[in-house]
Specification:
With 359 residues, the chain is an all-alpha fold. The chain has helices at residues 11-23, 30-33, 44-65, 71-79, 81-113, 121-135, 139-153, 161-166, 180-190, 200-203, 213-238, 241-246, 250-255, 266-297, 303-316, 322-335, 337-358.
């Protein structure tokens, strides 16, 4: 059935798809990723927002030329079936490893804080079963889950009030004590924390009001940018420069500054609620991976989703050192930058082809 008959995403779905997919686990360690710039890192999320705004436009523009096709199909149209399918396979593999990386990071967080003496096998299986259940409802089910996630988790920012009270606002004075290499290093690592908005190229055919897709997605992006900016500012005023560089998952450690007489560890509440943000990210990426597998194998079968879940499980539980896993996942993250640049390349091909046809 053509996607022209399956338009189901309204403006709220589009806004919260963009917003929730971007958060994931990236924001948990964002201050540490930006620590090469010292206290001056607090303005970087605004720069990320500007870059995201600029790079979103060619994505929407390209999709508007093929309003009923996703990026997998656009690749085949503009590059030919053979090369297009090769590129599609590359994207599918990247989505799978990227999703496994998000799950692995979250499980590492759980194991290092809450379940120090237990294996992560059962939690990973439970997470993947929830993932399969959400994705089986389609992109609208994922969008609804993203909306629910936002309203369930937004209250966590209340727990930063004690960090703000105990912080030193003089840290926000811009020192600009960094060089271009440190700036590039912070940008390269930090921008990974806001990836996710590029998936609009896959669910664009399902958007009802495609003419306003750019505006609605932009709203979602800047909600996430504001949350990243707020988190980074609070981290800068609360931590020392040494802590910014060395405290892993520094955002959750902000919650430890909280003081509730009836709760011993507020950060455990944050870890528990964060599973919603993890699911909102990986469900979208795995849904895109399944979309890619469908484009490669044509026949749609439900077993493909379970197969993807099994592959992700094997990657997360592969018998290799943590250092090797981190290198694999970091490489996958950087390959994700290709998806940001890819629409520029395809847009040029589209323009060149159009001119040849007109001539």
């Amino acid at each position: 059935m053509s996607t022209a008959n399956l338009k189901m995403l309204n403006r709220y779905h589009v806004i919260f798809l963009a917003q929730s997919i971007m958060i994931g686990t990236g924001i948990l360690s964002l201050p540490q990723k930006l620590s090469a710039m010292g206290y001056t890192e607090w303005f970087m999320p605004i720069l990320f927002g500007v870059v995201a705004t600029l790079t979103l436009w060619p994505m929407v523009w390209l999709c508007s030329k093929y309003p009923n096709e996703n990026l997998f199909r656009i690749n085949e149209i503009l590059l030919g079936k053979v090369l297009g399918k090769v590129i599609n396979l590359f994207f599918v593999l990247q989505f799978i490893v990227f999703s496994a990386g998000i799950i692995s990071n979250y499980m590492h967080l759980i194991q290092s804080t809450a379940l120090q003496e237990q294996t992560i096998t059962l939690p990973v299986i439970c997470l993947l079963l929830l993932l399969v259940y959400i994705i089986s409802g389609g992109i609208k089910s994922i969008a609804r889950f993203c909306m629910m996630t936002f309203f369930i988790t937004i209250g966590m920012f209340y727990f930063t009030r004690w960090a703000i009270e105990k912080g030193e606002f003089s840290h926000l004075i811009p020192l600009f004590n960094f060089d271009w290499q440190e700036f590039f290093d912070a940008f390269k690592k930090g921008y990974l924390s806001i990836l996710g908005y590029e998936l609009i190229m896959f669910y664009f055919p399902y958007i009802i009001d495609q003419k306003k897709a750019y505006r609605h997605t932009l709203i979602g992006i800047w909600i996430s940018i504001f949350l990243c900016f707020f988190t980074t500012v609070v981290s800068v005023i609360y931590y020392s420069e040494w802590q910014l560089k060395n405290v892993e998952f520094s955002v959750l450690n902000l919650f430890k500054a909280g003081e509730f007489s009836f709760v011993e560890r507020i950060d455990i509440i944050g870890i528990t609620l964060w599973v919603f943000l993890i699911l909102s990210s990986i469900t979208a990426y795995v849904w895109c991976a399944k979309l890619g597998v469908d484009s490669l194998l044509k026949k749609k079968r439900n077993y493909k989703l379970f197969l993807l879940a099994v592959i992700i499980f094997l990657i997360v539980r592969m018998p290799f050192s943590r250092e090797f896993q981190e290198k694999l996942f970091i490489t996958s993250n950087y390959i994700g930058y290709m998806l940001i640049i890819w629409p520029f390349f395809l847009s040029m091909i589209y323009v060149v082809r159009k001119k040849k046809v007109q001539q």
